[in-house]
Design brief:
Largest sheet: 8 strands, antiparallel
Number of strands: 26
Strand order of the largest sheet: 3-2-4-1-10-9-11-14
Bound molecules: fructose -6-phosphate
Radius of gyration: 25 Å
Length: 617
């Protein structure tokens, strides 16, 4: 939450800051602000409540002098509402030092009291302002920006990324991080800082991730990283794997529309290079090692939201293929209940952003408790993979829309690859069986493309008919259950419609009381071809709700005539094995959520109250 960008170089800081903030706006969009030192050495700041465009329009009307040094911030409010005053940057008492912050300073009340008792006054309700005032005071004593920030970070508790600049120090921006992200972009005669590489990918592909409890000082020709004690730290450079254009809309009506269209590629790219002779081989798991993987007696998958639903699908596949028990836990529930972990536990964390604080804390907990920790992540250089023993990157490309779509499919794909790798390592599937599953997985991208081709227009129409709807239910059994949960979450967060996902078998244990005439219910129908299929049971569930007046929209295998008499609409999906059906059935639900939100005139990419990476607990 909150996007941060910093720049030193030539006289284009406003262009860099506003471009970077545009790309980081998915992280928070309550307010935005910049501070820039102009060519005459004056520092100007501008900050406005509302989306970034409000700030951009304000700057067009009342330009700020451009210069070679600047910082910018886009906010997701925690302490203090989304107002101009609470927007960042915040200033030191003399107004010469500007500071921006992502995270929460947990001991801010104590620090605020100390500052107030010694004569400071505050202009905002934020926790951030204490840091600005404290660093300002230290600067008055030391005249050294890096040293001033170092002295203050040692006193802060909680999670933070801080960037500071000072009017008397043009050409320098200093950053510090603890439990919040910060990445350096290396340019030619210019350098960048950002919450993630999207902030500067337009200008450079060379990046360096900053470690936990480290401070970085950037100047146009140098970058210096130290720990909080001042010891120099060696950092590793990496190349950003995607183009700036990958994080642009490119003619689509929304990022989400673009990202749903990229679902086939997200799956295909995640498989790419990970299959040798038809067998999955994940070299990334070598830091844990096949001997340890053979020996594990339990897997715990930890994640939040959509990523947790991907984890639920991973459970079905891994248990079936690798014959090891898998529990799926929400990261925040896992972390605070004294979970049972042994050296034979493999913890798999799933996070698109790699920065979700709840998952990061759970990963740290699991590592400290002695588990093997493997991350599934979509973001290079993010914190969670660096806190884990091994990482399998999903190659979905940048996901900008706040609600996750293509990353979900890539996460499920990565978990299936992990399941097949484990099956090989543990000898629970024959090579032939692994090959058959790999062939099924490799066929998924074309099948998703077919769903998009065949169903998009029809689902759009359906959504436009339903703009007045108050409540939607989603039902699924077995692997259809996480799909139902995902469909309901998308509808809640995108279209602000009350929606619930249920395991279809649970219906008669209570939720069926919700069914009244006209209630819309989406049902994920399993294939009738599978001998172990729950198809007849799901068809019975459809009949039960139909008898009570529900309006049924079935997502069913094409050619499945048995649902036709009972469903008001059938959305067909291509034939696939049971474990692979969810990767197809979820696509119409992603489209439906997006289309219904768009039909209601809502902002599909930036739903209210949300932020893409939830970096507070
Ligand atoms: C829902 C959604 C969220 C995220 C969750 C975890 O559409 O996007 O539920 O899935 O906040 O985020 P990551 O995967 O970044 O850890």
């Amino acid at each position: 939450m909150c996007g941060i960008v910093g720049y030193v170089g030539d006289n284009k800081s406003l262009e860099v800051l506003l471009g970077g903030l545009k790309r980081l706006e998915y992280r928070g969009y309550d307010s935005a602000g910049v501070a820039v030192i102009d060519k005459d050495g004056h520092m100007g700041t501008r900050k406005r409540a509302g989306k970034l465009q409000v700030l951009v329009d304000d700057l067009a009307e009342r330009p700020l002098g451009n210069g070679a040094t600047g910082i910018g911030h886009t906010r997701w409010a925690t302490h203090g509402g989304p107002t101009d005053r609470n927007a960042h940057p915040h200033l030191s008492a003399d107004g010469k030092l500007a500071l921006i912050h992502n995270g929460i300073i947990e001991n801010f009340s104590e620090l605020k009291k100390e500052l107030t008792d010694t004569g400071a006054s505050f202009t905002s309700e934020t926790d951030t302002e204490v840091a600005a005032l404290l660093v300002g005071r230290e600067y008055e004593k030391t005249g050294d920006l890096t040293e001033s920030l170092r002295r203050v970070v040692g006193r802060l508790e909680g999670a933070f990324t801080l960037l500071v600049m000072h009017e008397d120090q043009p050409g320098i921006v200093v950053g510090a991080r603890r439990n919040s992200p910060l990445v350096i972009g290396l340019g030619d005669g210019e350098n960048f800082l950002g919450s993630d590489v999207a902030a500067f990918v337009e200008f450079t592909k060379r990046a360096v991730a900053i470690g936990q409890d480290q401070i970085v000082t950037i100047r146009p020709d140098s970058v210096e990283v130290t720990d909080f004690l001042g010891n120099t730290v060696e950092s590793e450079e990496f190349e950003i794997a995607w183009d700036a254009s990958a994080s642009e809309k490119g003619g689509w009506s929304s990022f989400m529309a673009k990202e749903i269209s990229e679902e086939p590629e997200a799956v295909a790219n995640t498989i790419l290079g990970r299959v040798v002779d038809g067998i999955v081989n994940l070299g990334e798991l070598s830091p844990i090692g096949d001997d340890a993987l053979k020996d594990i007696d339990r897997i715990v998958i930890i994640a939040c939201g959509t990523a947790a639903y991907a984890g639920m699908l991973g459970k079905y596949a891994i248990e079936q293929w690798a014959r090891v028990p898998v529990d799926v836990d929400l990261s925040h529930e896992f972390r605070y209940r004294n979970p049972i972990i042994t050296p034979r536990t493999l913890v798999i964390s799933i996070s698109q952003s790699g920065e979700t604080m709840d998952t990061l804390m759970a990963v740290k907990y699991a590592t400290a408790a002695g588990a093997h920790v493997l991350s599934v992540c979509n973001t290079q250089g993010a914190t969670i993979p660096r806190e884990s023993h091994a990482v399998v990157y999903t190659h979905a490309g940048p996901e900008v829309a706040v609600a996750s779509t293509k990353a979900f499919l890539a996460q499920v794909t990565a978990l299936y690859l992990i399941g097949l790798h484990l099956a090989k390592a543990r000898g629970t599937l024959s090579d032939n069986a692994i090959r058959e599953n790999v062939v099924e997985l490799q066929a998924v991208p074309d099948k998703i493309a077919e769903v998009l081709r065949v169903s998009q227009a029809e689902i759009g129409q359906l959504a436009r008919w339903m703009t007045d709807i108050q409540s939607v239910l989603f039902l699924g059994r077995n692997v259809g259950y996480p799909v139902a949960l995902e469909g309901a979450l998308k509808l809640k967060e995108l279209a602000y419609i009350h929606a619930e996902g249920f395991a279809a078998g649970e219906l008669k244990h209570g939720p069926i009381a919700l069914i009244e005439p006209g209630q819309v219910v989406f049902v994920v129908v399993p294939s009738p071809r599978d001998p172990d299929s729950l198809h007849p049971k799901v068809v019975s569930n459809i009949q039960e709700i139909r008898a009570r007046g529900a309006r049924v929209i079935a997502i069913a295998e094409k050619g499945d005539a048995s649902v036709l008499p009972f469903a008001d609409e059938v959305i067909p999906i291509p034939l696939a094995g049971t474990l692979f059906e969810p990767l197809l059935a979820v696509v119409p639900l992603h489209i439906f959520g997006m289309e219904l939100a768009a039909a209601k005139g809502l902002d599909v990419d930036q739903p209210r109250n949300l932020a893409k990476s939830v970096t507070v607990e």
